[in-house]
Design a protein that fits this description.
- The structure is a single chain.
- This protein is α+β, with helices and mostly antiparallel strands and 158 residues long.
- The protein contains 6 helices and 4 strands; from the N terminus they run αβααββααβα.
- The strands form 2 sheets. Strands 1-2 form a two-stranded antiparallel sheet. A two-stranded antiparallel sheet has the order 3-4.
- The radius of gyration is 16 Å and the shape is globular.
- The two termini are 25 Å apart.
- The relative contact order is 0.21.
C-alpha cells in the first residue's frame, strides 16, 4: 500500500529534476500561487513560468501541494527581483534599480512596449545584467498577465 502511494507521488516530487540545468527548486505549500512562490524564492514570474512551462499550466491552476518546481536554470537565473505594487511604472522601476530600458525588457520579455501589462503581484527581474532566455510562447505569457491566479488549497486539486 505505502509502496503504491510512493510510486504515485514520485512524478510530482521529481518533475523539477527533469528540467535540464535546474539549479534551484522549491516545494509547493498550501495556499501558494506562482507569484507567491516567485516572491518568496526570489525568481521573476516570467522566469518561473518559463522554466516550468512543461509542468505548470498557463494560469498556474495545476500546482499541487508537495510538488517540486524549478526556480532557475544555469545561466538564466535572475535572483534580483521586485514585486509590482499599485501605481508602479516601468520608468519608476528602472530609476529605482538603475536599470537600462533594454535590460528591463530583456529580463522581462513579457512586458509590452508601453509597459501597460504589468500587474500587482507580478515579480520582475531587476538585475542590471541582461539575461538571454530561450524562445518562449508569447501568447501564453500574455494570457497570464492580469488574470486571476488561484492558490493551491489543501481541499482542492487544480
Amino acid at each position: 500500500m505505502f509502496a503504491a502511494l510512493a510510486l504515485l507521488a514520485l512524478p510530482l516530487l521529481a518533475k523539477a529534476d527533469f528540467i535540464e540545468g535546474c539549479t534551484r527548486t522549491a516545494v509547493v505549500k498550501a495556499g501558494d500561487t506562482c507569484d507567491e512562490l516567485s516572491t518568496r524564492h526570489g525568481v521573476s514570474t516570467f522566469q518561473f513560468a518559463l522554466v516550468n512551462d512543461e509542468t505548470v499550466d498557463t494560469n498556474c491552476h495545476n500546482l499541487q501541494i508537495n510538488q517540486t518546481v524549478c526556480l532557475g536554470v544555469s545561466g538564466q537565473d535572475c535572483t534580483k527581483i521586485y514585486t509590482v505594487v499599485e501605481d508602479d511604472t516601468c520608468d519608476w522601476i528602472q530609476q529605482q534599480y538603475g536599470i537600462a530600458n533594454e535590460t528591463l525588457y530583456a529580463n522581462n520579455p513579457q512586458i509590452n512596449a508601453d509597459c501597460t501589462n504589468i500587474y500587482i503581484g507580478e515579480v520582475l527581474c531587476v538585475d542590471t545584467k541582461a539575461f538571454t532566455y530561450p524562445a518562449y510562447n508569447a501568447t501564453l505569457f500574455e494570457a497570464v498577465a492580469g488574470s486571476y491566479v488561484p492558490y493551491c488549497d489543501d481541499d482542492e486539486d487544480y
